[in-house]
Automatic annotation (TrEMBL):
Keyword terms, alphabetized: Signal
Annotated BP74 N-terminal domain residues: 20-133
Listed PANTHER family: CALMODULIN-BINDING PROTEIN CAM-BP15-RELATED, CYCLIC AMP-INDUCIBLE PROTEIN BP74-RELATED
Signal peptide residue numbers: 1-19
Lineage of the organism: Eukaryota, Amoebozoa, Evosea, Eumycetozoa, Dictyostelia
Record's protein name: BP74 N-terminal domain-containing protein
InterPro entries with a match to the protein in the record: BP74_N, cAMP-inducible_BP74-like
Pfam families: BP74_N (PF23621)
Top-level division of the source organism's lineage: Eukaryota
């Protein structure tokens, strides 16, 4: 019986950690703010390390644009798909470096061969500022 209780408790903890979401305020060099939602435990930890200057690499945000508003990021008509978000120092060759304002102004063109192919963007001057509790 005790083994069953321990197993059940362990499964509850695993499920809770898998369901964790965290939201972070990101700023770029133009002064624009953007909120990202992270669902991966390691990425959440890395973002928190960035806030407290514990991380020594992978400072900038990249991810796939989804042309839909989210309540946590209501200023913008797009968000980054949480499952696609990662952090980087040097963008991949296939990634277009851009600023938030540029994406907002050219959102109709985004995800086309002329602007942000594959809907993937590298926010080249992005910096994680703080965690937001929703």
């Amino acid at each position: 019986m005790i083994k069953l209780i321990v197993l059940l408790f362990t499964l509850i903890l695993i499920n809770k950690s898998l369901a964790e979401k965290a939201h972070f305020n990101v700023k770029d060099s133009s002064g624009e703010h953007f909120v990202i939602e992270l669902t991966d435990h390691d990425l959440i930890r890395h973002a928190r390390d960035l806030i407290y200057n514990k991380a020594k690499e992978r400072f900038h945000v990249q991810g796939k644009i989804v042309k839909e508003k989210r309540a946590y990021n209501s200023k913008w008509h797009f968000h980054l798909d949480p499952s696609s978000i990662s952090f980087y120092d040097t963008p991949m060759d296939s990634c277009c470096s851009t600023e938030l304002a540029g994406i907002g102004k050219r959102l109709d063109e985004a995800c086309t061969p002329s602007f942000l192919p594959n809907c993937f963007c590298c926010l080249s001057s992005s910096k994680v500022l703080n965690e937001i509790k929703l």
